[in-house]
Amino acid sequence: MSQNNNGNLSDCNFPKGDPYEEYIVSDRHYTFTPTTFTKRQLRPSEYTYRKDGTVAKSRFERERLENERDALIFIAENSSIPVPRVLEWSDIDGVGSLTVERISGGTYGEVHDTLGPSDQAKLDRNTLNYIEETLLPQLQSLRATKMGQLAGIVFPPVRVTGQEDRPRWEARTSTTRRYVYCHNDIASHNIMVDPATLTVNAVIDWEYSGFFPKEMEFPFWKIERNESYDEEHCRKMIELLDAPGELR
């Protein structure tokens, strides 16, 4: 298991200080309590603006949050993969808010940095085994004939849209159920582990998850901290997204 800091900020990197904490990133407001974690859309008073005066929002901001809510329920009902339990969804004046249980422990990277060499090696083995022997097989057993998120729309992960940002991606279909459920960001910051047992507590941040060709699940867990996917990988992913549904 490798640590990688590329990609998006993890939604659930738990603060090490005050258990009651809140902060804002580009398109999310986060609130932590001892037992809950809430992420919501920004209110107009919290927006940041580009130099041209437009609001600095990322695409599919609302849809991603709704998809995480749906994904957490779907995964909990259709697998043994540990995920945060959904506690509440609210919509006040068009601002969506998702509250889930706060998972104990820390991210893989946080815990790994506190350990000695032998325990680091044990955590590496446990986490890699969990991903390759439990997480991926269970995800790939969940199959569909239509590509995309659970609500029926399609928004690929940032590594793809960063190369080609389209207002709409086609939801291709197949009679062979060739699309498997992908988390789309299985990286160290999205794996919560128990610092005592050095085992996986939960998999978090399912905003970009959905049914896609299995090759979309980039192996972030195998690459080193300063490595990342390359442009060739992204081009191949775009080709897969554009391929006819019956392509084998």
Report the order of strands and helices: EEEHEEEHHEHEEEEH
Strand content: 15-25%
Largest sheet: 5 strands, antiparallel
Structural class: alpha+beta
Estimated helix fraction: 25-40%
Compute the CA-based radius of gyration: 18 Å
What distance lies between the first and last C-alpha atoms, to the nearest angstrom? 30 Å
Number of helices: 5
Mean pLDDT: 90
Uncertain parts: 5-17
Morphology = globular
Query: How are the strands of the largest sheet arranged?
Result: 1-2-3-5-4
Tell how many strands the DSSP assignment holds.
11
Q: How would the blueprint of this fold be written?
A:
Blueprint: E1 21-24, E2 29-32, E3 36-40, H1 61-78, E4 86-92, E5 95-101, E6 106-107, H2 108-112, H3 117-141, E7 143-144, H4 158-161, E8 179-182, E9 191-193, E10 200-203, E11 210-212, H5 231-242
Antiparallel strand pairs: 1-2, 2-3, 3-5, 4-5, 6-9, 7-8, 8-11, 9-10
